[in-house]
TrEMBL record:
Listed InterPro entries: AAA+_ATPase, ABC_transporter-like_ATP-bd, ABC_transporter-like_CS, ABC_transporter_ATP-binding, DrrA, DrrA1/2-like_C, P-loop_NTPase
Protein name: ABC transporter
Membrane topology: Peripheral membrane protein
Family classification: Belongs to the ABC transporter superfamily. Drug exporter-1 (DrugE1) (TC 3.A.1.105) family.
Lineage: superkingdom: Bacteria
Chief location bin: membrane
Domain ABC transporter: 2-241
Subcellular location(s) per record: Cell membrane
GO molecular function, one term: ATP binding
Any GO CC annotation of this UniProt entry: plasma membrane
UniProt keyword annotations, A-Z: Antibiotic resistance, ATP-binding, Nucleotide-binding, Transport
Amino acid sequence: MIHARGLVQTFQTGRGKDKKEVRAVDGVDLDIAEGEVVGFLGPNGAGKTTTLRMLTTLLKPTAGTATVAGYDVVKESEQVRRSIGYVSQAGGTFSGARAGEEVMDHGMLYGRSKAEVQKRGHELFDQLQLDGLWERMPKNMSGGQKRRLDIVMGLIHEPTLVFLDEPTTGLDPQARANLWEHIADLRTRRGATVFLTTHYLDEADALSDRILIIDQGRIVAADTADNLKAQVSGDLVDLEVSDPADLQRAAEHLASIAGSGSRDAVQVEGNHVRGRVQRAGRAVPGLLRSLDGSSITLESIEVHRPTLDDVFLTLTGRSLRDADASGAPPEGEDAAEEAGRPTEGARA
Ligand SMILES: Nc1ncnc2c1ncn2[C@@H]1O[C@H](COP(=O)(O)OP(=O)(O)OP(=O)(O)O)[C@@H](O)[C@H]1O
């Protein structure tokens, strides 16, 4: 469904001697099969949107090739646009018509009959909790309602390949949960292929069959959430020691079952000692006995299964939450080769 080889996108930023080149996407290979839901995860500025814009034909690659639904993104961009649904991060601008009319126009643009679009449009309004808003002007909708209308527009022509750029950003928790259900449904009921970017770890985890992690323009991991988590060595054991004088001794006990067994495998912070332990569920009872035997008392003990953030930390040495590409130039400067962005409001 989606295949890319060596995709690169560079942007020129700054002027005169401050001029520099940003490699927003730096050699991305992708293979996404029909019916897969793939989560594209990475910190701000990692290159997610830029990759998506190349795949949806909005930006011409600086180098590399990609086919989407069997069509070349550069040579057959029109066919690519006809074959996909796209919900951009920024959302669309609307013409000033009522929401229902916008949806009707958009669906009919794709050659669907009026009756079909009307039926599907009302269904989507219902499913995305926009019921009663068919006659409302988008400009009089709340941010969350407008976001959901963007999603209706991206899905109205029943595409079997859907690109969603941070679909749930700006939605309240209930609308978010509702949209998750809808995305899961796209695959199970309609057999659609979904490629979604997100920086919400829980979202990627809950929805995706497979997760691609991008950092600084490069894919650093591609696997199921479970397999990625299995790469992180062990569960995090967090001991809170009652008496700070016992911290170093507690650290030695934890180190004896953690990672390489060396004292470096554990960290001390405040009253806490933390380290990664293989199969903590089995190792912890013995640890508690040995701490007890040394008269070290604990306030608490917690065991955390690895998260996708731990995966990112293991791969890059940074936490996904703090890994925003600092020092990156502001977006929108001197965009290179904007490849014929469709008219405002039109979604491919
Ligand atoms: N038009 C542009 N001109 C200059 N630099 C750009 C442009 N668009 C993106 N960049 C830079 O390219 C890098 C990748 O940006 P991109 O928007 O693809 O990241 P992202 O992973 O989607 O981030 P976010 O989660 O914040 O949307 C960033 O350093 C960004 O500042």
